[in-house]
Every structure is written in C-alpha cells, then in structure tokens.
Design goal:
This protein is α+β, with helices and mostly antiparallel strands. The chain has helices at 2-8, 37-55, 85-91, 93-96; strands at 12-18, 28-33, 61-63, 70-74, 78-83, 101-104. The protein has one domain (2-96): Beta Polymerase, domain 2. It contains four helices and six strands. Strands 3-4-5-2-1-6 form a six-stranded mixed β-sheet.
Length: 106
C-alpha cells in the first residue's frame, strides 16, 4: 500500500527492502524519491492517508516533513523514507541495508 501511494504521486526509484533477517529495528524499509519539497510532502501525505484509510494504521513517529528534504514515517514493521535526490545519494540507505532482500517496485 505504501509503495503504491508513492507511485501515485510519481515518486522515483521506489525500493522495498526486507530487513527482518538482518535487523530487529523493522521488517521493511521503503525508500522513494521526490524531486522537490512539495513532492516529498505530497508523497508523505499520500502514504499516511493510504495506510490510515486502508490499513487503519498511524505512524509511530514522523520526522522531516516540514523541511521535506528527507521525510521519515515509522510504522514499526515498516519504515518509509522519502528523499530528495541529493540527500538520498548522500545517505545511501540502499548500501547500508544491502544485506536485506531488495525488491524493486513494481
């Protein structure tokens, strides 16, 4: 649901990484890219709305939404990261979680 919500707002390079075998933090990491502050906020709101309406779940924690360079939604079993391109490249979470199972979307 979260990946589809990102896709509906034209997020770029959506990746799902299953980390349940390599970390106790969460089961899944979702990484997506928005090209501007406005798009990062729009993607974030779309994910929140989709998971609230269809999954009846709210994030445990939210970070970075106002600045919209890197927004984080923590749902416990799923951590959603929405980056602008230069921030995504700098933090390179895909490399950090490379020992997880990487699933491209769609």
């Amino acid at each position: 649901m979260a990946a589809r919500a990102c896709d509906e707002k034209k997020a770029k390079d959506i990746k799902l990484i299953n980390i349940d075998k390599v970390s106790y933090l969460s089961e899944w990491i979702l990484i997506a890219e928005g090209m501007s502050d406005v798009q990062v906020r729009s993607i974030t709101k779309s994910v929140e709305g989709e998971l609230r309406d269809k999954g009846n779940i709210e994030p445990i924690r939210k970070e970075g939404i106002n600045e919209a360079k890197w927004a984080l939604l923590d749902y416990g079993d799923l951590i959603v990261n929405i980056f602008q391109p230069e921030i995504r490249k700098f933090y390179d979470l895909e490399s950090f979680w490379s020992n997880g199972d990487d699933l491209k979307f769609p």
